[in-house]
Amino acid sequence: MLAKRIVPCLDIKNGRTVKGVNFVDLRDAGDPVELAKKYAETGADELVFLDISATEERRRTLVNLVRDVAAQVNIPFTVGGGISSVEDVDILLQNGADKVSINSSAVKRPQLVNELSQKFGSQCVVVAIDAKKIDGEWIVHLVGGKVPTELNLFDWAKEVEERGAGEILFTSMNNDGTKDGFANDALARLSEELNIPIIASGGAGNMQHFVDTFKDGKADAALAASVFHFQEIEIPDLKEELKKQGIPVRL
């Protein structure tokens, strides 16, 4: 069985790492380059950077940051935020990103998924899906969770897989920042219906939540932010616990 991956996520706003609850109430969590270096040194398998600020300078800031991080880490990292073209991806990959994450731009123009996977390979293309459970149905949301669409999580995930996405990063808006655990029912269904890796996001609060999302949610990777940023969980301890509970991890 493939090793399960632990992935710290750095939400970037104005060059700083921030973290909120249910996508709002952001607070500062530190310097992204320093955090990235620390995570790489303490056993993170990958990193995800999401530029959540909507400023016009987003691309320039992100490129500089990607370059700075690439100089400090030796693990794969994914960059997302404001990516809407082959050219955007080209610039990020040239500056040291290993993968890109697209969300709103994929919904607005699904053909983008095809274009990116054809040009760079599906292993480079992560489609992030933010979804909220409303009246029993998982509805895809855009623009940092502010804009609901008419898309169903599972239908959309299947479509982007067919278009060439290499991974799905699913964030449950209901669980995000609550520290009550991941949305394992939805994750398990995604894992059963798709043939590409699923990254669980939203809800990590303790080590058992990671165990549960790998066992019950059948996730391939688990992403978290605040529990790592604020030292509530240290990655080496988490991996030891996962190993103890029979979950394959890279130590």
Automatic annotation (TrEMBL):
Active site positions, chain numbering: 11, 130
The enzyme's E.C. designation: 4.3.2.10
Organism placement in taxonomy: Bacteria, Pseudomonadati, Bacteroidota, Flavobacteriia, Flavobacteriales
Enzyme category, top tier: lyase
Alphabetized PANTHER family for the sequence: IMIDAZOLE GLYCEROL PHOSPHATE SYNTHASE HISHF, IMIDAZOLE GLYCEROL PHOSPHATE SYNTHASE SUBUNIT HISF/H IGP SYNTHASE SUBUNIT HISF/H
Pfam families listed in its UniProt record: His_biosynth
Subunit annotation: Heterodimer of HisH and HisF.
Function: IGPS catalyzes the conversion of PRFAR and glutamine to IGP, AICAR and glutamate. The HisF subunit catalyzes the cyclization activity that produces IGP and AICAR from PRFAR using the ammonia provided by the HisH subunit.
CDD domains assigned: HisF
Entry-linked InterPro entries: Aldolase_TIM, His_biosynth, HisF, IGPS_HisA/HisF, RibuloseP-bd_barrel
Protein's organism: Wenyingzhuangia heitensis
Superkingdom of origin: Bacteria
Name of the protein in question: Imidazole glycerol phosphate synthase subunit HisF
Record's subcellular location: Cytoplasm
Catalytic activity: 5-[(5-phospho-1-deoxy-D-ribulos-1-ylimino)methylamino]-1-(5-phospho-beta-D-ribosyl)imidazole-4-carboxamide + L-glutamine = D-erythro-1-(imidazol-4-yl)glycerol 3-phosphate + 5-amino-1-(5-phospho-beta-D-ribosyl)imidazole-4-carboxamide + L-glutamate + H(+)
Family to which the UniProt record says this protein belongs: Belongs to the HisA/HisF family.
UniProt-recorded Gene Ontology molecular function terms: lyase activity
Pathway: Amino-acid biosynthesis; L-histidine biosynthesis; L-histidine from 5-phospho-alpha-D-ribose 1-diphosphate: step 5/9
UniProtKB keywords: Amino-acid biosynthesis, Cytoplasm, Histidine biosynthesis, Lyase
Coiled coil: none
